[in-house]
Design brief:
The chain is of the alpha/beta class. 43% of the residues lie in helices and 19% in strands. The strands form 2 sheets. The chain has a 10-stranded mixed sheet with strand order 2-1-3-12-11-4-5-10-8-9, with helices on both faces. A two-stranded antiparallel sheet has the order 6-7. The two termini are 21 Å apart. The structure holds 3-isopropylmalic acid (IPM) and manganese (II) ion.
Length: 359
């Protein structure tokens, strides 16, 4: 019997709905071609609903999400909503409540996509950052006292426990093993832990020991490397070809993956997954809601299409995911640029072309 997937769609704000529509087109084309069933249920969470009702994401929505195979998110954010409300209320709440403990961010430069790095080509930029997605400073431990006075104190604590670190590391090691088996060019490179253990002598040490322990015991065949996060920033720019699978804690991962997005060609092409390997995952393009481009058919849907590809790959539809990637590469060759408004074609045209090639 054909497999069947139920997808929760959160188009969200700004250009979110436009790019989700193109991602949906490509998903539908893939389902027809590769013989699985897809259905979509749309949710209206985002700025508009918040401004109308004061509600970000009710607890009942989390229970709803649990019934789906996956979540596909466009973008959230609106100039009229104070920063932090929607991010915490929708994105972080979903990550935490569904225990999406892996943030998967491929940093892959495709042919014909422009990188700001001089002399770097697709062969140099092809790695994956595994960002721990539920712990660290994002847990909200800490507080503020004497607020508003000259003696105000604020703390926000980096919190990690061994189990949270281990499950993230295990995902990274397993991914590295898979990539090494897939292509010898990956096998030449190490798995890299990124932290700041010269200063974060508690959290950094926990991560480092856990990495070394697990590596030595369970994955002795994989070469391990370690970078301080500040140095990793330099190497992402100077020698991105050194990296294959890089694993790091939450905030460092947040920061370095934006750098990663830029070297792979910008927000128009950067996709990410919030993954619970045993549960419901959520996929999204990394670009924000881009209010100034809304409704103009100029936003690049490639990152959303890439997110759709990652979703199918995670669901186990690897052949369909592969076909989408091949189609993306081919359409990127025809585009003038991956920047919004400079693609030489419209948002819908990009989606149509990719969907047609997948069919
Ligand atoms: C990301 C975003 C989020 C984060 C924000 C919007 C809360 O920057 O997914 O990288 O910090 O994780
Ligand atoms: Mn970020």
């Amino acid at each position: 019997m054909a497999k069947s997937y139920h997808i929760a769609l959160i188009p969200g704000d700004g250009t979110g709905p436009e790019v989700v529509r193109e991602g949906g087109k490509v998903l539908n084309a893939a389902s027809l071609k590769f013989g699985f069933k897809l259905d979509f249920t749309e949710f209206d969470f985002g700025a508009e609903r918040y401004l109308r009702t004061g509600e970000t994401l009710p607890d009942s929505a989390i229970d709803d999400f649990r019934k789906f195979s996956s979540i596909f998110l466009g973008a959230i954010g609106h100039p009229d909503v104070k920063p932090g409300i929607l991010e915490t209320g929708i994105l972080l709440k979903t990550r935490f409540a569904l225990d999406q403990y892996i943030n998967l961010r491929p940093v892959k430069l495709y042919p014909n996509v422009e990188t700001p790095l001089k002399d770097k080509d697709p062969e140099h930029i092809d790695f994956i950052v595994i960002r721990e997605n539920t712990g660290g400073i994002y847990t909200g431990h800490g507080g503020a006292t004497r607020v508003g006075t000259a003696d105000e104190i604020a703390t926000q604590v980096m919190v990690y426990d061994r189990r949270t670190v281990d499950r993230c590391l295990e995902y990274a090691f397993e991914l590295k093993k898979k990539r090494n088996a897939k292509d010898p060019k990956y096998a030449e490179k190490p798995i890299t832990l990124i932290h700041k253990r010269n200063v974060l002598t508690h959290c950094g040490d926990l991560w480092y020991r856990a990495f070394e322990d697990m590596g030595a015991r369970q994955y002795p065949e994989l070469r391990r490397d370690y970078n301080h996060v500040d140095a990793a920033n330099m190497w992402f720019v100077k020698n991105p070809e050194w990296f294959d699978v890089a694993v790091t804690e939450n905030l460092f991962g947040d920061i370095i993956t934006d750098l990663g997005a830029m070297i792979q060609g910008g927000l128009g092409v950067a996709s990410g997954g919030n993954i619970n390997p045993e549960g419901v995952s959520m996929f999204e393009p990394m670009g924000g809601s881009a209010p100034k481009y809304t409704g103009k058919n100029v936003i690049n849907p490639m990152a959303a299409i890439g997110a759709a590809m990652m979703m199918l790959d995670t669901l186990g539809e690897t052949r369909a995911a592969q076909a989408i990637e091949t189609a993306m590469v081919s359409v990127m060759q025809k585009m003038k640029s991956q920047a919004a408004g400079q693609m030489g074609m419209g948002t819908t045209e990009v989606g149509d072309l990719v969907a047609k090639l997948v069919s």
